[in-house]
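Consider the tokenized backbone below.
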């Protein structure tokens, strides 16, 4: 049985330093919110699986090879002969000013039409990005959540609202529809206000909890995170592993660290602290997933082992 199963679209990521119009070269890597979470959990030693679709092109080959090399189960990553692998281009104007351009319309992942046979998993994770990719990918998310309910798997959701993919009104409507299935909601402050229809963060978290969500966690970047679980309210500070180099992927890293602890049976505060710790590692490295910590990093941080650098 997998510890986590997720569905989404992995992307080839091309990154330019500075304004794209003046960048003579682009650095190639892979990205995608769900892929980042799956890699993060696999590096920490859990069994993560990914349902997706990529092209039968060199970019698709690279994505499958990278995910498999990171320990992610890719047996449910299909290949399309008709459509290409999705692409994103990052414009790194500064570490905190990153602009993303998507080339994913008509991509292989947009062919996803439901999810088909689902391998058993203790937990499933979904994002609003997959809901935004079209009717077929959205159906895959809903089928995954329904399967989780039928098998007793827990569910987490990261809205990951991307206004280049759909309007805020459409995003809020679609996300509210799936909230009854969610146990752990992990989101930004702006997303919390929009989805709850609230005027301030405390009201937003309370309204979201009233929808039956067991744990609501709001990521606040350099200000750490705040969350509620029933009557428990927790605030944790951000934890930096070094100067911020690339802010993209921080939310996914937080989710991976948080879910790692939740799936190990750790408490709410410990899960949030590990989330901020993982996010601090990712932003100190270029790339969406490259800086994700592994189990040796975690054990050293927790004082369970001593790291020997030289």
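A designed sequence for it:
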């Amino acid at each position: 049985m997998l510890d986590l199963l997720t569905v989404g679209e992995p992307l080839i990521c091309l990154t330019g330093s500075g304004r794209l119009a003046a960048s003579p070269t682009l650095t190639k890597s892979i990205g995608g919110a769900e892929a980042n979470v799956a890699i993060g959990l696999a590096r920490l030693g859990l069994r993560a699986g990914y349902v997706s679709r990529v092209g039968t092109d060199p970019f698709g080959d690279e994505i499958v090879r990278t995910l498999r090399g990171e320990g992610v189960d890719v047996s449910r990553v299909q290949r399309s002969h008709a459509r290409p692998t999705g692409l994103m281009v990052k414009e790194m104007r500064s570490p905190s000013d990153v602009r993303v351009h998507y080339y994913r319309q008509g991509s292989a992942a947009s062919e996803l039409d439901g999810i088909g046979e689902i391998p058993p998993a203790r937990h499933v994770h979904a994002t609003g990005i997959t809901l935004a990719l079209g009717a077929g990918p959205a159906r895959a998310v809903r089928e995954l959540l329904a399967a989780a309910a039928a098998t007793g798997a827990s569910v987490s959701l990261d809205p990951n609202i991307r206004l280049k993919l759909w309007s805020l009104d459409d995003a809020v409507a679609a996300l509210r529809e799936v909230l009854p299935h969610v146990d752990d909601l992990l989101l930004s402050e702006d997303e919390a206000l929009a989805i709850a229809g609230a005027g301030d963060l405390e009201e937003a978290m309370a309204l979201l909890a009233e929808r039956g969500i067991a744990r609501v966690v709001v990521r606040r970047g350099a200000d750490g995170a705040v969350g509620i679980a029933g009557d428990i309210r927790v605030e944790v500070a951000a934890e930096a592993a070094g100067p911020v180099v690339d802010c993209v992927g921080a939310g996914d890293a937080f989710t991976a660290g948080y879910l790692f602890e939740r799936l190990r049976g750790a408490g709410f505060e410990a899960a949030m602290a590990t989330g901020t710790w993982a996010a601090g590692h990712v932003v100190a490295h270029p790339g969406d997933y490259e800086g994700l910590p592994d189990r040796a990093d975690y054990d050293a941080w927790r004082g369970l082992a001593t790291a020997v650098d030289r």
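The longest helix spans residues 135-151.
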